[in-house]
Amino acid sequence: DWPDFGDVMSRQWQGAIMGRRMTGDEAPIERVWRDKILSHINPDDGLLYRPATGFSKHVADMGDQALTLFALVTAYADQPDERLRALITRMVDTLLLRTRQADMDGSGFLSGFIIKSLMACARALPYEPALELAGMLVRRVFVDQPLFAPDNPFRHGGHMHGNLRTLVGCADYALYTHDPVLYSRVDALYRYVRSQAMRFGFLPEAIG
Known about the structure:
Blueprint: H1 8-23, H2 29-39, H3 62-78, H4 82-100, H5 115-124, H6 128-144, E1 158-159, H7 160-177, H8 180-196, E2 206-207
Antiparallel strand pairs: 1-2
Helix pairs in contact: 1-2, 1-3, 3-4, 3-5, 4-6, 5-6, 5-7, 7-8
């Protein structure tokens, strides 16, 4: 339902890498996905841009950056490569600069969607600016532009997938930085989510 160049395809590439690590067999499509993802990344700022087509605008979508960064870090952790490292650090540096300048196009869950990817980057490379940006975005979703209600439910219409990925990243950050207060808040929100699930585990796309 929208032009996909860095969302599903990034996850497919990442999944192919993980599948190869588990089975020892490389899917022929893995290199195709890798090449396609890399072809959409601007080497000047490290961001993935959707091409201008009849159904797509030339934009660097924040959701695309979150999932592309995770795929790039996974590929780097699998086979360290200086070209990949340069792309990863350039993307993080650009996003960090834009966040400092309040010029990052990300609101609601999109502010937190990339935190998990940043934490993977901070550990796998390691890269301190990724941890710094993760901390800034954790503060954004919990303090500056609260994504969740004070008593720990999702706000009205809370996007399940986006909010859960944000919480996974925040839990990772809390564990990495030894922040029990943040971790307890994330735990309370997960308990709320579990209370909304049906007996067989189904969760609605939006709650709150």
